[in-house]
Design brief:
The protein has 199 residues and is an alpha/beta fold. Helices cover 44% and strands 11% of the residues. Helix 1 packs across helix 2. The mean pLDDT is 92.
Amino acid sequence: MQYPEPVAKLIDSFMRLPGIGHKTAIRLAYFVVDMNADDVSKFSSALKETKDKLRYCSICGNLTEEDPCVICKDKSRDQNIVLVVEQPKDIMVMEKMKRYHGLYHVLGGVLSPIEGTGPEDLNIKSLIKRLQTNSNIKEVIIATNATPEGEATAMYLSRLIKPAGIKVTRLAHGLSVGSDIEYADEMTLSRAVSGRTEI
């Protein structure tokens, strides 16, 4: 027996989302069917508004309603440091910490030959142009994920930026707070040792 066409379309739509398989998509579709009309209307409105009102900041690549974004416009932020992240959601994580007060730059992904993602597919040209035209920037912190692709992207960016005389740093990696050394893998321990700090 086939699903009614509207339900089938909804299942297909949910399956386009990352991490949503067929069973989860079915469960979500039937959840929507059971929602009251007002909630469905608000849900669809939120989806449409997200696409209609949001754009990418022309300076840093962050998601914003206004261009440039509030972070790029904020002159009270440290104009000497740019923290490079993979996705706009990474900015929100950093901002929750309330310890970083510099600027950001969003790459929109990482280098991945397997997935066919090269430097031209990322927001790298605009980063280099930004560094060339803004002599205030003295340091670039690369905050890509600690994956092989994230590491390769960090090394690539470092080789591009260092010749300009700009300091390039990487977020420290190592043991997380509350973890036991005996359960850490070799790579984590190696990074913890090389990234050690004086106390």
